[in-house]
Amino acid sequence: LYHACLQCVPDHPEALHLLGLLQTRRPDHPTAARWIEHSLRIRHDSPVAWNTLGNVYRSLDRTADALRCYQQALALLGETLLRLPGVNDTRTYVVMEEVKQSSRLVISTR
């Protein structure tokens, strides 16, 4: 379905992001990163795509890149907490102030 969408609109940011998200379920994180990076080159103001890319980078042990993505998502959201989908503990959050002031990913459990 997403490939069909991209045949009509080759640079559709949501279709690109969702193709990347599907790749995380395979799991093929390098391919997922490429699709989501492409999506963000077109539409760089999607906090959901930045968060997804952060999760992909975290899966690839690219912590500094993940941190940058989470910071971007938080800046766009303007919220205190950002939920990390894919983390087994449903109470795990990244706290914005800790992320902003840190050069490493800080995870707090509540």
Report on the structure:
The chain has 6 helices and 3 strands; from the N terminus they run H-H-H-H-H-E-E-H-E. The protein has a 3-stranded antiparallel sheet with strand order 1-2-3. About 10% of the residues have low confidence. Helix 1 runs antiparallel to helix 2 and helix 4 packs antiparallel against helix 5. The N and C termini lie far apart (38 Å). The longest helix has 15 residues. It has 110 residues and is mainly alpha-helical. Strand 1 and strand 2 form a beta hairpin. It is flat.
Core attributes:
8% strand, mainly alpha, single chain, 3 strands, 110 residues
Q: Can you give me a brief rundown of this structure?
A:
The chain has 110 residues and is mainly alpha-helical.
Sequence-ordered SSE layout with sheet pairings:
Blueprint: H1 2-8, H2 13-24, H3 29-42, H4 47-59, H5 63-77, E1 81-83, E2 92-95, H6 96-100, E3 108-109
Antiparallel strand pairs: 1-2, 2-3
Helix pairs in contact: 1-2, 2-3, 3-4, 4-5
Largest sheet: 3 strands, antiparallel
The average pLDDT score comes to 76
Strand order, sheet with most strands:
1-2-3
Rg from alpha-carbon coordinates: 14 Å
Per DSSP E runs of 2 or more residues, the count of β-strands stands at 3
- Please bin the fraction of helical residues: 55-70%
Q: Please report the distance between the alpha carbons of the first and last residues.
A: 38 Å
Q: Which regions are unreliable across 5 or more consecutive residues at pLDDT < 50?
A: 87-97
**N to C succession of SSEs:** HHHHHEEHE
Briefly note the structural class of the backbone: mainly alpha
Shape: flat
Strand content: 5-15%
How many DSSP H or I helices? Answer: 6
